[in-house]
Amino acid sequence: MRAVRFYGKEDIRVEDIPEPNCGDGQVKIVPAFVGICGTDLHEYLGGPTFAPTTPHPVTGDKIPITLGHEFSGVVEELSAGVEGLKRGQNVVVQPTVACGTCGPCEGGSENCCYKGGFVGLSGGGGGLSDYVVVYQNRVLALPDNVPLDVGALVEPLSVAWHAISASPLKSNSIVLILGGGPIGLAIIQCLRARGCSKILVSEIAPARQRFAQRFGASHVLNPIQDDVLKVSKELCGGQGPDIVFDCAGVKMSLKTACETVRARGTVVNVAIWEGEVGFNPNWLVWGERKYVAVLGYMKEDFESVIEALRSGKLKPEAMITRKIKLEDVVEQGLKALIADKDKHVKILVEVGS
Q1: In whole angstroms, what is the distance from residue 61 CA to residue 125 CA?
Q2: Is the bond preceding residue 31 a cis peptide, omega within 30 degrees?
Q3: Which end of the chain is more exposed for a tag (fewer CB within 10 A), N or C?
Q4: Buried b (16+ CB within 10 A) or exposed e, 97-110
């Protein structure tokens, strides 16, 4: 079968590899649409980072590995004893890899597994292939009114949903989002779906500013031109926003988030940082502000996003800015995001095309 394989920095190949077998408790899926994630881009430009160079403690795999962790597909085969799914059913995959035995896993926080990872980044197959085999508990059915291309957005939307769930959001909360990339834009939509209407976004790129407005931001600031701290406080009656989501993950966004949020407000870090940065705890101390970090998602986040899609509270179709063939994943996918990342939200690979 065809598979997109990661070998190392700027070395991704479309190869023919053996088709996986469906083992006990597993489901074989024909991937339909796969989103190219910022993590995939980081691996291509500077990896391996997430991709294991020695056998992964759960999957046992090491590079080369098959990529693709944001994907939807169709059930092809069910192993004996698998219930609740049927052949031909449209599904999405929660790509969490977890050991199931460490403290976080036993405590219900498998997203923080000490040996964890992701299908499509840590081995165990990936969505950028003709077939992938995953365990039944990672497979969620798509409602009939949610198409497969939108299904590929469930994973990044679940990142956003999980981040919001970690915050003290109320219907009247005023929220500031730092960074209008795919996850920042997903947070806008999930906030709207959860009843929040006053959403400020700080973003440099004009194209992403327009996307933020389109997806429901009430105010869009340019941190190069605007004093984000001053303007945010003015828009919040002088107090600052109740919650700040840092999706930018740069030195200035950390300081801005901590100093802009209102007294006893909450900063939620969603970004993955590339290195250490300076931090002064007094940014939080003087206002008794809280700083919360989140990682990935849980199954309940996937379930909530799927229900919001089914009910129409989430309508993320406009996030899809291009569809490409599997063979074009490097030239029209990864390289397009490098050259024109501000013009795209989500590029989908249509595996079967």
Answers
A1: 9
A2: no
A3: C
A4: bbbeebebbeeeeb
* pTM for this prediction: 0.96
The CA distance from 56 to 54, in Å, is 6
SS (H, E, C) the chain: CEEEEEEECCEEEEEECCCCCCCCCEEEEEEEEEECCHHHHHHHHHCCCCCCCCCCCCCCCCCCEECCCEEEEEEEEECCCCCCCCCCCEEEECCEECCCCCHHHHCCCHHHCCCCEECCCCCCCCCCECCEEEEHHHEEECCCCCCHHHHCCHHHHHHHHHHHHCCCCCCCCEEEEECCCHHHHHHHHHHHHCCCCEEEEECCCHHHHHHHHHHCCCEEECCCCCCHHHHHHHHCCCCCCCEEEECCCCHHHHHHHHHHCCCCCEEEECCCCCCCCCCCCHHHHCCCCEEEECCCCCHHHHHHHHHHHHHCCCCCHHHEEEEEEHHHHHHHHHHHHHHHHHHCCEEEEECCC
Q: pLDDT tens, position by position, for the chain (353 residues)?
A: 999 999 999 999 999 999 999 999 999 999 999 999 989 998 999 889 889 999 999 999 999 999 999 999 999 999 988 999 999 999 999 999 999 999 999 999 999 999 999 999 999 999 999 999 999 999 999 999 999 999 999 999 999 999 999 999 998 999 999 999 999 999 999 999 999 999 999 999 999 999 999 999 999 999 999 999 999 999 999 999 999 999 998 888 999 999 999 999 999 999 988 788 999 999 999 999 999 999 999 999 999 999 999 999 999 999 999 999 999 999 999 999 988 878 889 999 999 86
